[in-house]
Amino acid sequence: MGAERPTIDGVRASRSVDTDAFRERAREEGEALKEHVAEGTFDNVQSTIGLEHELYAVDAERGGVRRVPRSLLRCRGFERELGLHNAELTSDVQPCSEAGLAALRQGTTAKLRSLQRLAAEEGIRFVSDGTWTVGPADGSTERYLTEATHEDGLVLAINVSNAVRYHGFASVDEHRSVTGSVELPGATVATDNAGPVSLTTSIQPHLQPRRAADLPAYHDAALRVAGPLLAVAANSPFLPPTLYDEGAPTRELLLGGSHAETRVPLYEGLMNPPECEPKVAFPRDLDDAAAAVDRIVADPVVVPAKIEGGERFDDAFVHFRHKHGSYWRWVRPVFDGATEAAASARIEFRPLPGQPTLPDAIACVAAVVGLLTELADGDHPAAELPWETARANFYAAVRDGIDADLTWITATGDRTVDRDRLFADLFAAAVAGLEARGLSSEEARSRIAPLRRRAETGRTPARWKRRVAERALDTGDSPTDAVRASQRAYVRTQATTLFDGHFVDWPDGAVAADCA
Length: 516
Known about the structure:
By secondary structure, the protein is of the alpha+beta class. 44% of the residues lie in helices and 12% in strands. The strands form four sheets. Strands 1, 2, 3, 4, 5, 10, 11 and 12 form an eight-stranded antiparallel sheet that branches. A two-stranded antiparallel ribbon has the order 6-7. The protein has a two-stranded antiparallel ribbon with strand order 8-9. Helix 6 packs parallel to helix 12. It is globular, with a radius of gyration of 22 Å. Pfam families: GCS2. This is Glutamate--cysteine ligase. InterPro entries: GCL_type2/YbdK_subfam, GCS2, Gln_synth/guanido_kin_cat_dom.
């Protein structure tokens, strides 16, 4: 494997780009973009939704992570992601309505079914998850994640996809992203390249309001709901066992000492340049749509490039778009469009890990749509939750998942830390927002039900994985084998429920462990 010659040449060329000139081009394009925003170019006749869904591949028999043949990524709707074991599904854009949500589920299901069918011929299965924990059959996990070649000062990861920006993160001196190591509970992950970031996979719902001027209200609403939604969606409590200190985790670490959503601190720790403001972060509120553009313009440059625009409308902002590709805030605005008529200003919601089933992922999209609509367009008091509290909620959910201490403002204006009351009000607000989008009360409640049941039962993917590991430990497995049992149980259970099931209907973790 390893980077191919065009990629190596591209990384080398990036090191010679005049960063100041690149930054100035991006600033000029940003000013022009703001004029388009003010003139209404990015306004639309209807709101729309979409979904990006990252996956990783495993060996269908043994369950260890496996590289994806490039031919599989020619399937409609898929493209490469950072790791050679990754694929990313991009949905079609749909109307923000019940029919749109149904079409989103149908479209993603059709694309992934087709990919899984072809992958099965290669002995591969794609998994929707937050992190993978069982490494490849042909080598150690640590080596797979960190192995690189070093050529003329370039760091070229062996198992990272051939893209200039992926390898440039570790090789271009200006605000080099990849740091030396990240400290996690019970583990230190050290690297000189982006490989370990490919442990993580996520889903990213997109919501486009009709008017670009409404983007800040939707952005700020997304910040208020990020913590509670992550609390019920958390799905990455473990790392591969050999990455832990002393080469293995402890029982205490597995059953509660690690983050419920390890994906977040891992990504932040590895991808934030040490000498400048964080790029992976919980962003501040926005004053207006122009401020969203200004933030991307002001963001530190990573892997600058000599770029020539093409025929697309947004190629007039090609340097700005290049910068946006490394603007990794947990909620971020997106400005693009192949034509002026198709110009889109939308919110990309990035806190959520991959979910156990596709219907669960669509439930997350529905919850994001409903909550952002109710907080941004309605009169729900949670829109006034202080930013500092919203940020504290997010990182509390990262640490403790459904057990996190969260603060919320209810529809009646009461500040509450009561978990049952918080989630009851949260999902009532999501239902109200979906009803405002034209869904019937029954349709809205049905869309939200899978997540509401998680909150009511306290049963989340992260907690399920811990339960499987606990059962394995209690029956005599080592902590290392318990992590592997959890992964086997997860992949096996997902295989029969991915397209039509819901996580809340999965067997209890202890039962799943006995069958692993």
